[in-house]
Amino acid sequence: MNELAGALSPYLRQHAANPVAWRQWSAAALAEAAERDVPLLISIGYSTCHWCHVMAHESFEDKTVADAINSRFVAVKVDREERPDLDAVYMQATMAITGQGGWPMTVFAFPDGTPFFAGTYFPKSHFLRLLDAVHTAWGTQREELAHQGAAIVEASARSGPAFADVTVACPLDGPCPPAPPVRTESLDAAAATTLASADRVNGGFGAAPKFPSVPALRFLCDAYVRTGDAALLDHVKLTAKRMARGGIYDQLEGGFARYSVDEAWTVPHFEKMLYDNAELLWLYARLSGEDELFARVADETAAFLLERFTTEEGGFAAAFDADTDGVEGLTYVWTMAELESALGEDAAWAAGVFGIEPANPNFEHGANVLELPRDPEDGARWAAARHRLLAARRRRAQPGRDDKVVAAWNGLTIAALAEYASRTGHRDSLLAAERAAELLQRVHIASDGRLARASLGGVASDAPGILEDYAAVALGFLRLGGAWTARAQGLIEQIREHFTDFEGGFYDTAADAEALVTRPADVHDGPTASGWALAAAAMLEAFQVTGDETYKDDAWRAVARAEPVMASNPRFTAGLHAAAEALVRAQRTELSTGRNFLLQLDYWMCCSRWQKSHSALLRDGGDRGDFANVAIPRPRAGSHPRAVPAGALLLHGARAVGSRGLTARKKLRAAWA
User: Fold this and answer.
1) Among 35, 412, 455, 630, which is most buried by a count of CB atoms within 10 Å?
2) CATH superfamily entry for domain 3-158
3) How, if at all, do strands 405-406 and 323-324 pair?
4) Residue 277 in contact with residue 259, Cβ under 8 Å?
């Protein structure tokens, strides 16, 4: 066993029995490299990564490779999900060297962490030659490697975003002036550019491999609300429909895989990530009034999150592996013989329903990924076949689950479940969101308000939270409302104190975090919105809930600071464009229902069939300033908003408010009368 046996990360523990003398990233590991005068070999991956497993089996479990590493390098293993700051720094370096990135990431660096060579997956024979070459260069060309390392760091810095000078500066001795309005012309141009990259046949954007790209879809949703441009909503619906009917969606159990290897969403890369399913639950919940297919997928995805992702401590696990027993997708695919064994005489009918052509299987070794090209006419027969197939599948070996609780991803899941509950009245989803929030408050948030990135088994990691953690958890807390609002405000204050660049923008790491070769600051989205965009969104949500204008002004400065990058690359800064859309909407609709009572809505329900959240704030007009947050379920398509019965309202921490002590529910009944 090496040092990783005592690690919190399940990914690091996977390598504990390797003959490689792995170290965790630490000052001691870097000091050892300096003392031995050898380079660092930094390997970065995550527990559900297929090619990480392949390289581990080929190289890191091999004694010949291990001997070559141990004698010439200090080997450091990093879980990118636990240390996204290290991942960001070295991914930028890898991109600067090779022009592409991915995992596993393989980096050679000086003892101070300065990288001088990097790549991704290497087959064993290539990797052995690379180890020899780096060892030789370290002994004979050290000066050249130093120049190369300096050039890589400089190139990484140059490749970072070019930010704007924010024209509305804040004085040191007073409040910031009000932010000017957002230019809707730039949002129109960004939506048009994003739509121009759309796949009008299969949905989504670009060619294979194809990712859900929820931040871009969210932006198109918000742009549609503002403009009424049906083409924007049509593409979101096309994408949602194609994904829901494709193999990227688990047609038996619900839930989405990380991406599709083809442009038609047929064959997934089978790992299932928490953040994807949280984001897609939000999307399908928002679309649920447009099509019964979307409502069904929202219901099934919520159930999948609650049944399969929930940990014993009440949080949500990070991911399910792509591999089962070392074989990608083994749990999920079906041969005709397996269908016949599970379904008997219904197998041929089910094959037609699930898009299977026996003579032309869509996966490897004669197996098939299940799709649903159209809803079957015999719904009861289909439901019975699904039940039997799922029961048979559960008797198979199952993929591993990474039980690590990641703060940011749990924050997104809390927000998505609260959104889903607000539209459906599904109490179990709301309770699950609250349990996850309680775990984050109890385990991840320290007495000084600082946030840990991850936990396992109720024990917090030493890895500090980054910007996306603070912002996403704040968003989740705000969606829960009630007492969670003050806790969210505390997290936003931590962002203001530790992550700001003092010109309106943010760094991804705190000012007092470990100093790396560069301090990352990025506005580009990944599978989720950037930490920068999430911070702006959290501040806007805080403004909507509290009415504190400083939150809105800070969000405007964050958007304005990133404007040059947003203009040059709108699709991959869609999270900030969505925040800009929210800024445009920031004027709140108010309905007076009495001298001491104000009902404030993000949008009044009659304004549009499409709404962001229908979150309402009930405020006592007196001196006490009591609040109660209420989420109003969105009616199904075609129904009038006032047809929603008052009894369907779902209260988030509502309590008696107002001068006469009336309950929030009674006041809402009066408002809807």
Assistant:
1) 412
2) Glutaredoxin (3.40.30.10)
3) unpaired
4) no
